[in-house]
Amino acid sequence: MGVVFAVVFGLLCLAALLSLVRLLWGATSLDRIVALDVFVTLIVAATCVGMGMNRDGSNIALAAAFALLAFIGSVSAARLVEKKESHR
C-alpha cells in the first residue's frame, strides 16, 4: 500500500509542477487563475492522500473548508477579470 501512496504523491507533485509552470507563464490572467485553482486543488488532494496514508481523518473539515474558499476565490477573481475585460 505504501507504493500506491508514493506513486500518487509523485503524480501530484508532477501535476503541481506543471500547474506552477502555467501559473508563471500563463498567456492571460484567466489562465493564471485556473492554474492557481488547480494548484490549490492539488494541495488539498495531497493533504487527503496524506490523511489516508496516516489513517487519520481529523483534518477533513479543514481540507474541505480550504477547498471551498479556494473555489469561491477563483470564481470571484474570474468574474472580476471578465467584467474588466468586457469594458475594453
Lay out the secondary structure:
Blueprint: H1 2-24, H2 29-54, H3 60-86
Structure description:
This protein has 88 residues and is an all-alpha fold. The protein is built from three helices and no strands. It has one domain (2-86). The termini are far apart. 5% of the residues are buried. The model has no long low-confidence stretch (mean pLDDT 89).
Structural class: mainly alpha
- Rounded radius of gyration (Å): 16 Å
Which term fits the overall shape?
flat
- Average residue-wise pLDDT: 89
Distance, first to last CA: 54 Å
Task: List low-confidence stretches.
Answer: none
Q: Roughly what percent helix? A: over 70%
Count up the domains: 1
Give a count of the beta strands, DSSP E runs of length 2 or more.
0
Share in β-strands: under 5%
Topology pattern, helix = H, strand = E: HHH
List keywords for this structure.
mainly alpha; 3 helices; 88 residues; flat
Provide a quick synopsis of the model.
The protein is mainly alpha-helical.
